[in-house]
Amino acid sequence: MIHSLFLINASGDIFLEKHWKSVVSRSVCDYFFEAQERATEPENVPPVIPTPHHYLISVLRHRIFFVAVIQSEVPPLFVIEFLHRVVDTFQDYFGVCTEAAIKDNVVVVYELLEEMLDNGFPLATESNILKELIKPPTILRTMVNTITGSTNVGEQLPTGQLSVVPWRRTGVKYTNNEAYFDVVEEIDAIIDKSGSTITAEIQGVIDACVKLTGMPDLTLSFMNPRLLDDVSFHPCVRFKRWEAERILSFIPPDGNFRLLSYHVSSQNLVAIPVYVKHNISFREGSSQGRFDLTLGPKQTMGKAVESVLVSSQLPRGVLNANLSASQGTYTFDPVTKLLSWDVGKINPQKLPSLKGTMSLQAGASKPDENPTINIQFKIQQMAISGLKVNRLDMYGEKYKPFKGIKYMTKAGKFQVRT
Amino acid sequence: MTDSKYFTTTKKGEIFELKAELNSDKKEKKKEAVKKVIASMTVGKDVSALFPDVVNCMQTDNLELKKLVYLYLMNYAKSQPDMAIMAVNTFVKDCEDPNPLIRALAVRTMGCIRVDKITEYLCEPLRKCLKDEDPYVRKTAAVCVAKLHDINAQLVEDQGFLDTLKDLISDSNPMVVANAVAALSEIAESHPNSNLMDLNPQTMNKLLTALNECTEWGQIFILDCLANYTPRDDRESQSICERVTPRLSHANSAVVLSAVKVLMKFMEMLPKDLDYYGTLLKKLAPPLVTLLSAEPELQYVALRNINLIVQRRPEILKHEMKVFYVKYNDPIYVKLEKLDIMIRLASQANIAQVLAELKEYATEVDVDFVRKAVRAIGRCAIKVEQSAERCVSTLLDLIQTKVNYVVQEAIVVIKDIFRKYPNKYESVIATLCENLDSLDEPEARAAMIWIVGEYAERIDNADELLESFLEGFHDESTQVQLQLLTAIVKLFLKKPTETQELVQQVLSLATQDSDNPDLRDRGYIYWRLLSTDPVAAKEVVLAEKPLISEETDLIEPTLLEELICHIGTLASVYHKPPSAFDSDNPDLRDRGYIYWRLLSTDPVAAKEVVLAEKPLISEETDLIEPTLLEELICHIGTLASVYHKPPSAFVEGNHGVQHKGLPGSAGSHLSTPKQPASNISTMGKTKELSTDIRDKIVDLHKAGMGYKRIGKQLGEKISTVGAVIRKWKKHHTTANLPRSGPPHKILPRGVSLIMRTVRNHPKTTRGELMNQLKAAGTTVTKETVAKGTEHLHRIEGRMDGAMYCGILDQHFLPSVRELKMGQGWVFQHNNDPKHTAKATKEWLKKKHIKVLEWPSQSPNLNPIGNLWRELKIRVAR
């Protein structure tokens, strides 16, 4: 099981360590530092590193390496999932997961880590339960605590931890009963030079914020549930009913949670909401290169494409880029060679474009590689897969809740090859 | 208002201050002080001196303070065992507290205090907690048994905790079941043979019920445990599969992968014609695909496992090629794994898209990735025969890009394609030859030379090309030198008239000017082959040409039978890739001897045998051995699956640590310094100046300092300083220059004279040669001309001890005399049965021959062994 945890910041300092069994010397991290040195980018550090007596499993989040030390055979995914859970919990508690935030709340962090893992076995990782055990720090609570001398550790055994619905506590009360659902889809795609789609897939999630009194039992049905290729549910969803009727039936946890995540793969036809016309070329023997990029919407069902951000890693030989943008602003970092163009909203009548020249090192040969263009965007009020929620019903409680649903499409790893 | 203020405790005075605060009457102050102590502890500061004061704070009804004190206790109890005893009473009392949270906390913390004295007191409270009415306490207690077992295994067994734990598998609460399973699995790991997890259909049923209701982590423990079960029949495996399948829809990827493991294992037992089998296959693909859209770390582990799954059951993912396409900002470790899987999934149906993708990757920035992509194209060609032509043209396109490392990599893979499909794609040779000058990596140069040598008859200017390589012969790496030697010999055999000079040149370079024994030995054997029997040479060297098929049937059946009798393991070696060949391998040595015997008795038969065996490159050389693969499939999702090693390798590794390492000092085993091998070699000789110092000397000299001042500053002798600077002035380097070695007795001209004479008049005696040389101005003895080889004897029939003695008597002793070796030599031969036969031993003893003691299975120490190895590799190719 998980033996120890080390948190390492971007400059390579171990700023927190926690041991659940015997103490493992910090020097194990030397193997990690070696691997880090070999990998040029922090992203390229391999997640599983063997050392003579231990295995180091690490994740990189918010520029902090979370390195778990393992001594015996443990499923690596178990460890990685747990580390992700640690990061999520920190973010949940402190708003951000940074070195400063962790250091500011080091005692809470310690209490949390102690509560999340016992002898290397996960104990309580649900944010609802953790929050009952250890109250998140807020300015108000800190002030109240100082005045009244009370603590931020719960006195009672959290009810949820043992009830039949471990994810929900009893006795929840709200004056306004509301349930909101956000359908958020990310589209991952690779588009080739000529504009045809090589792969496209959609990762979708339904995040919920449910604030309902008592023990409500909800059902959520879709207009077109067959769209979904692979679904993963929150433990609260009754799997049998989904198998039989394609209906989500569940007693929701209190507050924010992820009800469902799904995957629509390239086997189905995936609509691509933007197109790119590009002409990035270098001529042999010339120290100038042409750069010409135009963006346009397609298949967006009349919805606006917003928050568009285009970035591209230009070849190393490029010294500078002298471009003009028809809208938005662009920056080029001559050190990292990263070109990024903040476009904003695409106006279908006047398509945004970025045109100009790139200057190359004098006498250098034509760059070999073709830059890939990375695009980020958002489309409100539309789920690109076409998924639609049919209705939401509540049983088990008498009041009428307020219900709401929102759709959004975002670009995930959306890449255009040139 | 934040905790960062606690980090200010650094000075010694602070400890005293804290001490005072800890003993304060005010609760609030106490708590603040404990917090400060914990904060210092987290950053690795030693606050153990405060132990008694912190323990004093333990008796409180404030839960937070209690927790903090517990945290402290766990950390420092080890260093203060006597003090820790003071806390025992409070623990025991807390284990009886009406609040289950406190009971659980107490038993949990007690288990974490790894002090023997405390464990004695732990047993009673633990026994009570294992039977507590509250499931939260029971599940905490279950884990505590595992903790106690880690500290004192005997105690756990004596107290019967293991049985109690087994009973908990039948607990009514799924969370308790899951923790009991987890604790038992951990205990079982340190007792590999104990039958702790006794799985029968009843317990299986309980586990499967608990599986649906427990936490995600509990599901992982239970699934991993299920995977160890062997179902009685296919009905049972189907029902288990049906109950596990819903786990594929879990949000936690570790649960998904553990479920995949269970399903892959139990599928084995299902009949393939069952409808359910097909359904299950279909259900496995989507969750695996979804894993690939997770964070890169998860992707990596998933990909390593998918790599196994596609080898075992390629049908699961055969339609999902696209999800393995590489995104340009994937981390490199994900890219390389994806590429590997793409090749495994490549088939005639999807090869066109795969090639287009691979071609795209070959223009990326990351050099390692590009190289692997180019190799992948070659592997596709070898794997999918129909695509070979398209692959070759893709490679040609890539060569046209003229990107240096792409071209080199492409040439290496084209060589492999030639070997798999001989005489099919020679038309591309011309294009390859254009890029000759840009090759600077040994592997690419060697590949190009191989191609030129192999197809010498079709390349008009093959001799010019090879000659151009020959110019810098001594600067080449061994790999290139060896390949060049062979290629020129091939060329000579194919076009004997125009290339005599060339072959002579390369032979003399290889045998006389080289200090590499491999190269020299190979040179000698070619030389001897060429000078004694050019026809046989042609047969041996050019034997690689595959003109076979029907001829295989012509092998004399008895000979074939004998061959097979002698090398029982031939088949297994056969399947291995050529790169795995190694002279340490006894199978290979035996095979080598057989080749040798064949060649020396009956070259024609030898040719037939050898040609019959010519191994085409196997499709996928890096396939995992079937048995290992099977074992790994049963361990999907584990560490073993990431490293593709048998799981036993891991158990052993940590076993040692568990027993060796004292708790708290496990880290100290990490770096055992290696003993310095020996420093005898440096004795009695002044140490060579490091390049660093030499560079420094030159730098100081450049800065205008005199020899004397430099010497003083660096503590070196003036003469040394002078020598370094003079060398730098002359050669512009401070590195060691190549050593000259003893002067050649015979000048190159003399060598060519000898060669010419021997070739034209093979019967020339040494005396005549000596006289000829004398006439040319060089006086040498007969021995210098002849030196180098002893007698080569051809063996007829099977050799036994007596025959061996005869050979030694007739050839070996005369050789020794002829070479004028005197008395200071040692005879070496390996432990072949005839070498160790009684007759042989007696003969050696009688003749007072010093024999080198030969450890069993040791690699060949005799330099000639390298030559034999070279011969068999050449012949096998």
Largest sheet of chain B: none
Low-pLDDT stretches of chain A: none
Q: Averaged pLDDT of chain B, please? A: 74
Tell me the β content of chain A. Answer: 35-45%
Query: How many distinct folded domains of chain A?
Result: 3
Radius of gyration of chain B, rounded? 37 Å
**Spans where pLDDT lies below 50 across 5 or more residues of chain B:** 545-591, 608-616, 651-685
Return the average pLDDT of chain A rounded to an integer.
Answer: 84
The CATH topology label of the largest domain in chain A is Beta-Lactamase
Class by alpha and beta content of chain B: mainly alpha
- Largest sheet of chain A, if any? 9 strands, mixed
Distance between the termini of chain B: 76 Å
In angstroms, what separates the terminal alpha carbons of chain A? 47 Å
Helix content of chain B: 55-70%
Proportion in β-strands of chain B: under 5%
Strands across the major sheet of chain A, in which order? 11-13-9-8-23-21-16-19-18
Subcellular location (chain A): Golgi apparatus; Cytoplasmic vesicle membrane
Keywords (chain A): Cytoplasmic vesicle, Golgi apparatus, Membrane, Protein transport, Transport
Membrane topology (chain A): Peripheral membrane protein
Domain MHD (chain A): 176-417
Overview features:
heterodimer, A: 418 residues, alpha+beta, Beta-Lactamase, Immunoglobulin-like, 3 domains, 9-stranded mixed β-sheet, 5-stranded antiparallel β-sheet, 7 helices, 17% helix, globular, B: 877 residues, mainly alpha, 62% helix, golgi apparatus (chain A)
